[in-house]
Design a protein that fits this description.
This protein is of the alpha/beta class. Helix content is 29%, strand content 25%. Strands 4, 14, 15, 16, 17, 18, 19, 20 and 21 form a 9-stranded mixed beta sheet that branches.
Length: 414
């Protein structure tokens, strides 16, 4: 569903005018739709009807407690990559046995916290990590449930920074080495082999690369069975993309169909780790035009949001549609939408046809994933407020930081 639409000439989120939201909470401001979050999760559950499956939301995409709470109430599991994310999901009452722990650099303290909580599984990404996990579990008198994240060396055909399944990427265990590492894991005293994990990248719009990867994974599953290692689940990771500009966004059912077909008849629980697909188009960034700076080469619209708020355009060259909250009838001009940060790479959008005046509100769309979660305080800029829309109600789910809070943990030299 699209929760953001124009009514009476003003962009609304659910039943609320975004002009009113900006007036109440200021700008820049992140705005999320509860209905859109619930709808996206429901689409996954519908596509998996009749399948033994668990949808584990990738917390890294957007870790606001309100977002996590909405999804936890709708029976989501969670995919975490740090001890901080573990504490966040536990804080909203998530069931530990619905949490999987991914990531290449788990510390001993993070492992101990997850073992003590009783999580569902660790997605192990190296032999060294497996050895450390065995040691930590032994010290605690516990058994660590594990999957190995297997790198199938399949090209996801996405941006190189978010491609994770090639042999030159830092993620996962090399496919050729995985069988031997499973045998090693099976011999460890404090580890129990539960499953296999595969994740080849993000913003995936074509299921073909993932189907290719799954074929290789299932071949390994069968080889392990001959070794006497019977797996309980296969974790297909996440990465399903969304429409940012003019992409053809597959339905969740269409994307999963070739994957589920390959798993038919196998007694394997299916885990999924979607992030962007659940939250990306459920959120936007509100920003206000501070100055217009026409020029001979380019016209600049300087807004109060910046690359420290939304890093994706500067980091990946990513496109986000940028639309006026209240469109003007005047003729458009071509504008560079830029922020006040002191970097030439500080932009939210290039060459946008808009009719603008100082003080106008703009909405940067498709910003619910990897927006606030990747924001920073560069240039000593406080991070923006976050607001959750619920029908005709707007809830402040994270207040705007103050400048004083930015240096509250610092001190002068004596």
């Amino acid at each position: 569903m699209n929760p953001f639409a124009y009514h009476d000439g003003v962009l609304h989120g659910e039943a609320l005018s975004l002009a009113d939201v900006a007036a109440e909470f200021g700008t820049p401001c992140w705005v999320y739709s509860r209905a859109a979050l619930e709808s996206a999760l429901a689409e996954f559950h519908a596509a998996l009807h009749g399948v033994d499956a668990l949808v584990c939301y990738a917390v890294k995409a957007n870790s606001n407690l309100a977002v996590l709470d909405v999804l936890a109430r709708r029976a989501a599991g969670f995919d975490i990559v740090s001890g901080g994310e573990l504490q966040r999901v536990l804080a909203v009452g998530a069931q530990p046995d619905r949490i999987v722990f991914s990531g290449v650099g788990k510390t001993a303290d993070e492992m101990a916290a997850a073992l003590t909580a009783g999580i569902l599984c660790f997605n192990v990404e190296s032999a060294a990590e497996l050895e450390r996990l065995d040691t930590v579990a032994g010290h605690l008198g516990k058994t660590a449930p594990v999957s190995l994240r297997v790198n199938p060396d399949v090209d996801a055909r996405t941006h190189p920074y978010i491609s994770t399944g090639l042999k030159e990427n830092k993620f996962g265990v090399a496919y050729a080495e995985a069988r031997q590492l499973y045998r090693q894991a099976d011999r460890l005293a404090n580890v129990s082999v539960h499953g296999i994990d595969c994740h080849i990248g993000s913003q995936l719009l074509d299921p073909a690369p993932f189907a290719e990867a799954l074929d290789k994974v299932l071949l390994l599953v069968d080889q392990l069975a001959t070794d006497g290692i019977a797996l309980q689940h296969v974790d297909l990771g996440g990465g399903l993309g969304i429409r940012y500009r003019d992409e053809s966004e597959p339905s969740i059912a269409d994307y999963l169909q070739p994957l589920l077909a390959r798993l038919a008849g196998r007694k394997l629980r299916v885990l999924l780790e979607p992030g962007r697909r659940l939250v990306g188009n459920a959120g936007l960034l509100l920003t206000r035009v501070e100055y217009l700076k026409p020029g001979a080469a380019k016209n600049f619209a300087i807004v109060d949001a910046a690359m420290n708020d939304l890093a994706r355009p500067a980091l990946y060259g990513s496109w986000h549609d940028i639309v006026p909250v209240t469109p003007r009838a005047e003729a458009t001009a071509i504008w560079e939408i830029v922020g006040p940060v002191c970097e030439s790479g500080d932009f939210l959008g290039h060459q946008r046809a808009l009719a603008l005046a100082p003080g106008d509100l703009l909405a940067v769309l498709s910003a619910g994933a990897y927006g606030m979660a990747m924001s920073s305080n560069y240039n000593s800029r406080p991070r923006a407020a976050e607001v959750m829309l619920d029908g005709a109600q707007a809830h402040l789910v994270r207040r705007r930081e103050t400048i004083g809070e930015l240096y509250a943990g610092e001190q002068h030299l004596p």
